[in-house]
Write a structure and sequence with these properties.
The chain has about 450 residues and is of the alpha+beta class. The protein has two domains: about 90 residues; about 325 residues, BirA Bifunctional Protein, domain 2. About 40% of the residues lie in helices and about 20% in strands. It is built from eleven helices and 16 strands. The chain has an eight-stranded mixed beta sheet. Strands 3-5-4 form a three-stranded antiparallel beta sheet. It has a three-stranded mixed beta sheet with strand order 6-12-13, with no helix packed on it. A hairpin with a 4-residue loop joins strand 10 and strand 11. Helix 4 packs across helix 11 and helix 6 packs across helix 11.
Length: about 450
């Protein structure tokens, strides 16, 4: 109800409740039949030990016990088959049920009711430094990049279709510089371990992080004739969250090793259909984009604190680049399917004249871990060597940052009235010391 779930989801939840009751009854029936079989088999065993000396009454008792054992076994088998069918149906229905929400999540219908938590940076600071006057109208990022001869959208569309772009020269170099800066910041200052992961994953990996089955239409599927992942349907990754989190699928970790903190720089592929207006142009919403992803695997006790830490690490990138942004807590009507609590970081874009999402930092609780059987073994409170029963991990993920959108923000915030772009100071070591990007001389 808090998520304003669709009628289909509500019906599925009701079905699950009913099936759960049926499942309990069937388990009791199956166990009853198994006990009957055990009792009848005990009688058979006892009589068979003296089978050569049975009188007619005992022989009759033996045959009745055999029949009872066989009948009970068949009934137990039928009950087990019915249980498997119920479990399959429940698993299918559960896969479409979103995560339960944290108490901090505000109730709301859509993004207009998200809760602003904080703001950082002065939107007028960079314009003043870059000498924008009242007559200067900041350009959209694609116009800035085009004027620097670094935006080759026509070539990309020719070879790949709509909503693909190609970058060249100093713009391509600037995009790479952003990604490398993010990776270096997170590995050297924030304690993340860099990982290089596959860009193709199987169905079960996407089910583990909950992109499947609900969001299959947003994924780029690979034809089975071309490739399968261990016999499963194969897909291009929509985010590095999928392969990074799945690195530990099915494992039991030790609490002493947690939290695990990973960072990965990958391309991401999304076939999502929804986009409107100028989003269909430029780098805001494309089918292929680069992202630096942060993933944490932790315990229930440290989950909320690690979520705040990961979000702060994403914010640190924006602050290092001196990009004004705001932090919002997503409401129940806007939060993602797998998240129990989510912050969006929205960067200021002067060309567009609005804040736009540049990072989503989500705490999924044990939602993903349950799907991929990712657990840890708690440390005994008494310091003994006793092995405790494994419990589910909590997983946290966020963009640190979306590279394409960070490029958008740099181009729009650091443009100058003469059409050049000032390179943010922290990116200059990755740009061979360049301080300003200017259009090549004709």
């Amino acid at each position: 109800q808090a998520r304003s779930a669709s009628s289909d989801t509500s019906e599925a939840a009701e079905q699950i409740a009913n099936l759960s009751e049926d499942r309990v009854k069937l388990i009791q029936e199956r166990d009853g039949f198994l006990n009957q079989r055990k009792e009848a088999s005990a009688v058979v065993g006892k009589l068979m030990r003296n089978k050569d000396n049975l009188d007619s009454s005992q022989q009759e008792e033996l045959e009745e016990a055999k029949s009872a054992s066989t009948a009970a076994s068949e009934k137990a088998t039928n009950a087990e088959a019915a249980l498997e069918e119920i479990q399959t149906t429940m698993d299918r229905l559960l896969a479409g049920i979103p995560n339960l929400l944290d108490d901090q999540v505000p109730f709301g219908r859509d993004e207009s009711e998200n809760e602003e938590v904080s703001r950082w940076g002065d939107k007028d600071a960079l314009p003043a430094r870059l000498e924008w006057d009242d007559s200067f109208q900041p350009l959209w990022h694609d116009d800035v990049a085009s004027n620097l001869n670094g935006y080759q959208v026509e070539a990309a569309v020719k070879m790949s279709g709509a909503r693909f772009v190609a970058l060249s020269g100093s713009i391509a170099q600037l995009e790479r510089a952003i990604a490398m800066f993010c990776i270096d910041l997170h590995t050297t200052q924030h304690g993340y371990t860099e990982v290089s992961v596959p860009f193709v994953v199987g169905r079960s990996a996407l089910e583990g992080t909950s992109q499947l089955p609900k969001f299959q239409e947003d994924l780029f599927a690979i034809t089975p004739e071309s490739h399968t992942c261990n016999g499963e349907d194969a897909f291009l990754i929509p985010t590095a969250e999928v392969p990074v989190t799945n690195m530990h699928r099915g494992q039991v970790l030790e609490e002493s090793d947690l939290p695990l903190s990973y960072v990965a720089w990958t391309p991401c592929f999304r076939a999502e259909a929804g986009s409107y207006g100028r989003d269909t142009k430029g780098l805001i919403r494309t089918h292929q984009f680069q992202k630096v992803e942060l993933v944490k695997i932790t315990t229930a006790d440290t989950s909320d604190a690690e979520h705040e830490t990961l979000t702060a690490h994403a914010e640190a990138v924006l602050r290092s680049l001196e990009l004004p942004y705001r932090k919002v807590r997503l409401c129940s009507g806007d939060i993602g399917f797998s998240a129990r609590h989510c912050y969006d970081l929205e960067v200021w874009l002067p060309g567009a004249g609005e804040f736009r999402e540049i990072s989503s930092c989500s705490n999924t609780g044990d939602f993903q871990a349950r799907r991929m059987s990712l657990r840890y073994r708690p440390k005994p409170a008494d310091g003994s060597n006793k092995k405790l029963k494994p419990v589910l991990c909590h997983t946290i993920n966020g963009s640190g940052l979306a590279v394409g959108r960070t490029l958008v923000a740099v181009l729009e915030n650091y443009q100058t009235p003469d059409g050049s772009v000032v390179v943010p100071e922290v990116l200059r070591p990755y740009m061979g010391g360049k301080e300003i990007l200017k259009a090549p001389q004709k």
